[in-house]
Description:
The complex is a heterodimer.
Chain A: H1 2-7, H2 11-32, E1 33-37, E2 52-56, E3 70-74, E4 81-88, E5 93-97, E6 100-103, E7 106-107, E8 121-125, E9 130-134, E10 148-151, E11 155-159
Antiparallel strand pairs in A: 1-2, 2-11, 3-4, 3-11, 4-9, 5-6, 5-8, 6-7, 9-10
Chain B: H1 3-26, H2 30-51, H3 55-65, E1 68-76, E2 81-84, H4 86-97, E3 104-114, E4 120-132, E5 138-150, E6 157-164
Parallel strand pairs in B: 1-6
Antiparallel strand pairs in B: 1-2, 3-4, 4-5, 5-6
Amino acid sequence: MLASVWLGRHPARTLVRVAVLIVGSAIVFGVVLRPIRASGVSMEPTYAPGALLFCNTLAYRTSEPAQGDIIAIRLAGPNVVLVKRIVGLPGDHVRIVNGVVEINGIPFDEPHVTKRLPWNYDEVAVGGDEYFVIGDNRSMRMDLHDFGRVHRERILGRIAW
Amino acid sequence: MVARPLVTVALVLALAAGGWFLYGSLWPDEPARVRAAVHALATTVTDAGQAQQGAAQFAALADLRNQLADDVTVEAAQRALLVEGRDQVLALAARFASAPTRPALSFVDVTVSLGADGATAAVSATAEFSETTAEGQQAFDAQQVELVWVKPGGTWVLRSARTINVLR
């Protein structure tokens, strides 16, 4: 009686459906769209601490990371990642003058940055397999904000939403 | 009737998984012992941080002494920090643990590579630091670390810890 309540009139079909759902969810959310819980303020106001994000790990299989993309960067593994925005591409020269990011000497348009402190950062050349990444929160002290060049192989994927 | 074979298969799989887990818990291999030592270290440091001060923190730091090699080193290049020797590392841990923000440490994505001699292990992990700010909010920091563990007297102890710069 209890089994028919739980498994319906066709228990075998129900079990198969449940198995397919479990395997499908494990593939989608374990491999392709990895859920990420934002902790920290470096991506404010775009992402508030505690926000649930999803990282598309297949995003860069067929295309290269682009300027403005928000990406997940792996540390020792995929379970704790840094979330940053790409501002500099391979070969670019990046510097920060009075809080304004300049790419190859031209101020970079960042409409998502609402407040900025007058950060200054000497020019660096981005290597051939590197990207320059930074968070959207420029209202915090520069020494408390992790940013800089990251190797391509550390990019786990693009934040889908 | 149709479901019976499926239920049997599910039951066998569950029993196999349970047996495998039980076997691993009762007879851990050497990498599992190193992994347990890594997590035990984080627990000890967190206990010291949560205790704040007094006998509980003293006990946690005394426990930590047994988890460190005599010549242990801790290096954080981006903070220009290099601490050498067990007493100095314990002093650093005491300062860390006494912060009013109740700091906590955990290790995630732990990978163990056992040396050929079986008495050295290289560990890659992400160290997660959390603390409670004066406003009552949780603050987090994460660093990739490389740890070296040694087994001088049958017990795994930390020989060195070094942070890795992911962004440069």
